[in-house]
Design goal:
The complex is a heterodimer. By secondary structure, chain A is an all-alpha fold. Chain A is 77% helix and 2% strand. Chain A has a domain of 214 residues. Chain B is 74% helix and 4% strand. Classes of the chains: A mainly alpha, B mainly alpha. The interface between A and B is medium-sized, with 30 and 27 residues.
Chain lengths: 494, 491
């Protein structure tokens, strides 16, 4: 099959799969889970083929209906689009993890819609990262956002509805900003194709171009939950069902970051503005995000709330790396977009398995759980070691490269902020590990709990293993991202 | 001459595997002891098998993998690394045997011995690290693996000490990471295989900042004042752990890290151009004197030992800052000399506590009659700290003083004398109490510690004397220290 057909398929298959889920799933919803799993497995296979292709021949495009840009719609698969693989992987594992969850927590008539929403959400993300058309970017963003709001509320509890509503309000504002910015770019350049915009923007007026990138930044940073635009995140991520939290925290916030990279691709290429002021703001906000996220996390009792705040810190790392605009910094940021997804999914799914078995979510209640669920807690511990950035885990690479990027960019103080911000993160993960292993249980029955069921344990263990493998074999994602980063930064001349 | 050999990797990996077996099979007393002693013994055998080659000048290297180009894990057994590895693996075997005797009645022994063996692994990893990143990895691993040992009692006091320990050491780890990043940016490599990878072309300001970052990073574990706060509080841990923290693994990892920074990252040539090195020397002098001074007023046996450690460790730092061959010899040799003497002291403290229940020094009156062998060992160690000839401590002091004169800083030799006096002031009163002051109202009856506690103590005391007697015998660590010095100074 030609690569362009595969590229179309990677969006169409999960989309059609999602639409068919309520039908296949039936009233009892029993078949919905396996169906969704099958759909994601096929999609993953296609994604894998696409990645092999991009590794061999470099970025490539598909034109829908054979219409070439700037008139037709372009799908473009470059190195950043390779995050499709992580989306597919996490999607597949989350769906598998959802089997038991949905059975226990959801009313049967809702199960099929739950899987529909999950698949739609994943479709939205895949579309978002492979589109070469800025309006389609917006469309896919809306697909993933809307399904995201619904997924947060899926349990139907009052707190969940409130969290989803808060998420919706913030999300709607951010979508509006992005749409506004797209409108501005269209007015300036008369084009919606990213590559084309980049060419035409070169001679454009500066003021509206500046307004556009400001609106993009704010819009995407709400999605990415950069401090101080993060207020929607903790509730939404903590209250959503754990498999959904894994997707929201691991992937959905990353669309804001990948969106930002796309905008950088347009603006750096066009050389219309000097973005160093924006970058300075982002680096500072990134640093503040790291520290504030960690600071709030320390005071959380609820294990998922803690993980949610930790996402804010990690987004801070990535934004800092992007804002530094130095080779190492951006490489670190790009790699961490992938790696953090794996790590955070390990943690959320692990926490989900514990909550599923015990019914408790406060750290105090969970004391001693390490003795009854050794495998799950071991996986979470690996995730924790990874997220605090210990070598040789996946989290270390990001810390190393972003810190190196800061020194390289002549701003070693940000390296200091990063390294010591990470210490705060250490504090609450140590608290978590203490709870698991070194404290006497408050509830004696916690020692009687069984290990998580296989369909939950398997995804958690796979992800934990990946946290290690992606660190030890870090050169693979790194060599993959490097040419893309070099191309991105080439116009900056240096 | 460099030879590719798997043994530098094998040494940490074997103990790591044994630790895993302790966790898996440790519920049975026999298997727990078997694998614990096994971890220590195999490591010792592997390390010792490299000794003849190292003494001939062979360097064993093993490159494991690169995470990403330029940074990765590599192992390398050079003279300095071998010195630390020989000292720590010898002491480890002895401590493990002691720990089995000491911990017999304790809870959570699987966890204790499992993490104990992991610490073995990490320490040898530090000794054989080929680059700063590998060093950092094992340095942090050591921090994390000692934490469960510090909080072993799980009392609120222990948990608090554990928190303090982690706060200090993790902060130190962050500085090491920061320093590594800066080093990589300046030198483009992290290797520890050369006598210095930095050059003055990086500018004095950057080099000074880098030096400060790395010294703080390793200085926390080496307990240079004012970074020493964690050490006295960590005394709540069981005695074998205190011995481990204060004589072998943790504090020496810090001191060893500092030596690596001095001799393999900066290099003597660059350091001579940096004024900041002098400030570190002043800090070391202050720590030597202040640590001893505080120790005089400690009544708790283990706390006195802790402050003495703080003081003694700065001998190493001071020796390094002299940047002369004799100073370097003293710094390296003192790693062994202090380790054997201090571990003897801790074994004595533990044996006394287990046998008589006494933990305060004023309670020790007449103890020399009850536990003659134990207190004889104590006396040997005390004399070594004072620096009497025929003991290990004398060697360190002699070379330190020589180094001071070589560097043209005669006043440092005076500091050595002052420190000897202070050491006498807090070690000898215990000897006096033990032998010359019978406890009122008790019948003097010999009640020695049990063999599992006594023999390791005596062996360590014997080492203290041996190290003082036989510096020139090849195969004992001192010749390794000299080989390391020759490499560092290009002699």
């Amino acid at each position: 099959m030609p690569a362009s057909a595969l590229l179309v398929g990677v969006i169409i298959i999960p989309l059609v799969g999602a639409v068919l889920t309520p039908v296949v799933g039936g009233r009892s919803g029993r078949a919905a889970g396996p169906w969704a799993l099958a759909v994601m497995l096929v999609t993953s296979a296609i994604a894998l083929m696409l990645i092999v292709h991009v590794a061999n021949v470099g970025p490539f495009s598909a034109y829908l209906g054979g219409w070439e840009p700037p008139y037709g719609i372009e799908l473009r698969f470059d190195e950043f689009s390779a995050s499709t693989s992580v989306i597919c992987l996490l999607g597949t594992l989350s769906i598998l993890f959802s089997f038991k969850y949905a059975e226990k927590e959801l009313p049967p008539e809702r199960i099929r819609y739950y899987y529909t929403l999950l698949l739609l959400n994943l479709t939205g993300m895949i579309g978002f990262v492979v589109t070469g058309d800025i309006f389609n970017l917006f469309v896919f963003m809306e697909i993933l956002s809307l399904s995201g709001y619904a997924l947060v509320a899926v349990s139907g509890e009052r707190t969940a509805e409130m969290a989803a509503f808060k998420y919706l309000i913030m999300g709607a504002v951010s979508s509006l900003m992005v749409l506004f910015a797209i409108g501005l770019l269209y007015a300036l350049t008369g084009s919606l194709n990213m590559a084309d915009i980049s060419v035409r923007l070169a001679g454009a007026e500066k003021a509206p171009a500046m307004l556009a990138i400001a609106a993009f930044t704010v819009g995407f940073m709400v999605k990415a939950a950069l401090f101080p635009l993060h207020i929607w995140l903790p509730d939404a991520h903590a209250i959503a069902p754990s498999p959904v939290s894994a997707i929201l925290s691991g992937l959905v916030v990353k669309t804001g970051l990948l969106g930002m990279i796309r905008i950088y691709q347009i603006y750096y290429g066009a050389k219309v503005l000097d973005l160093s002021a924006l970058n300075t703001v982002l680096v500072w906000l990134g640093a503040i995000s790291i520290v504030m996220g960690a600071f709030f996390a320390i005071f959380q009792e609820d294990i998922k709330m803690m993980l949610a705040y930790s996402t804010i810190s990690n987004v801070g790392y990535i934004i800092m790396g992007l804002g530094l605009a130095s080779q190492y910094g951006v490489i670190g940021a790009a790699v961490h977009i992938f790696n953090h997804a794996l790590i955070k999914a390990t943690l959320f799914l692990g926490a989900g398995a514990i909550i599923y078995r015990t019914g408790y979510r406060n750290l105090t209640d969970l004391r001693g759980i390490g003795r009854s669920m050794p495998l799950t807690t071991a996986a979470i511990s690996i995730g924790a070691i990874s997220i605090v950035g210990m070598p040789p885990t996946a989290g270390f690479l990001c810390k190393w490269y972003i810190a190196l990027g800061a020194v390289e960019a002549g701003q070693p103080l940000f390296a200091v902020a990063l390294v010591f911000g990470a210490l705060f993160i250490f504090v609450y993960y140590i608290r978590m590990v203490n709870t698991f292993y070194f404290q006497e249980p408050v509830h004696p029955e916690i020692l009687e709990v069984e290990e998580a069921p296989l369909s939950m344990l398997f995804p958690v263990l796979i992800l934990a293993a990946l946290c290690l493998i992606m660190g030890i074999l870090g050169r693979i994602p790194l060599s993959f991202v490097e040419p893309a980063v070099t191309r991105l930064l080439a116009p900056l001349g240096g | 001459m460099e030879v590719v050999d798997i043994r530098p990797l094998l040494a940490p990996v074997l103990s790591f595997a044994c630790a895993g077996l302790v966790f898996l099979m440790g519920r049975s007393f026999f298997w727990r002891c078997f694998w614990s002693v096994g971890a220590a013994a195999t490591k010792l055998v592997v390390v010792m098998s490299m000794l003849p080659g190292t003494l001939k000048g062979t360097v064993y290297v093993f490159k494991l993998l690169d995470f990403t180009p330029g940074i990765g894990l590599g192992f390398r057994a050079d003279a300095l690394g071998m010195f630390f590895a020989v000292v720590s693996s010898t002491l480890w075997l002895i401590t493990t045997i002691y720990a089995i005797g000491y911990m017999k009645t304790e809870h959570s022994q699987v966890r204790f011995f499992g993490f104990f063996a992991l610490c073995v692994s990490a320490t040898v990893g530090i000794a054989f690290a080929e680059n700063l990143l590998t060093l950092f990895l094992f340095y942090e691993t050591l921090t994390i693996c000692t934490y469960p040992l510090v909080i072993h009692e799980e009392t609120p006091e222990a948990m608090k000490a554990g928190r303090k320990y982690l706060t200090y050491t993790l902060l130190g780890g962050a500085f090491v990471l920061l320093g590594s990043v800066m080093t990589y940016d300046m030198a483009g490599t992290l290797t520890l295989s050369k006598p210095g990878i930095l050059s003055m072309s990086s500018g004095v300001t950057s080099l000074t900042w880098l030096f400060v970052a790395l010294v703080i990073g390793f200085g926390v574990k080496a307990a240079i004042m004012p970074l020493h706060g964690w050490l006295p509080s960590a005394m709540v841990a069981p005695t074998p752990v205190s011995a481990l923290l204060h004589a072998v693994a943790v504090v020496k990892a810090g001191a060893f890290g500092l030596l690596r920074v001095f001799y393999n990252v900066f290099g003597v040539g660059v350091l001579r151009e940096l004024p900041v090195v002098n400030w570190l020397a002043y800090l070391a002098v202050f720590t030597i004197l202040a640590g001893s001074f505080v120790a005089i007023f400690q009544d708790n046996f283990k706390r006195r030992l802790a402050y003495s450690t703080i003081s003694q460790l700065s001998y190493i730092v001071l020796g390094a800052t002299m940047l002369t061959p004799f100073g370097a010899t003293a710094a390296i040799a003192h790693i062994a000399n202090q380790a054997f003497a201090k571990i003897t002291m801790f074994f004595v403290a533990g044996a006394v506590q287990r046998t008589t229940g006494k933990t305060q020094i004023h309670e020790l009156a007449g103890i020399g009659y009850r536990m003659p062998w134990t207190m004889a060992a104590y006396t040997v160690a005390a004399l070594s700290f004072i620096g009497l000839p025929l003991t290990a401590g004398f060697v360190s002091k002699w070379y330190l003083s020589l180094g001071a004169l070589e560097a043209g800083k005669w006043w440092l030799a005076l500091v050595m004398i002052a420190s000897s006096l202070l050491n006498a002031a807090y070690w000898l009163p215990v000897v006096y109490l033990a032998y010359f002051k019978a406890a009122p109202g008790t019948r003097l009856r010999i009640q020695e510690a049990e063999p599992m506690l006594l023999w390791p103590t005596l062996i360590c005391a014997a080492y203290v004397i041996m190290l003082g007697l036989t510096t020139q015998v090849p195969g004992l660590p001192f010749s390794l220290a000299q080989a390391a010095v020759r490499f560092v100074f290009g002699m």
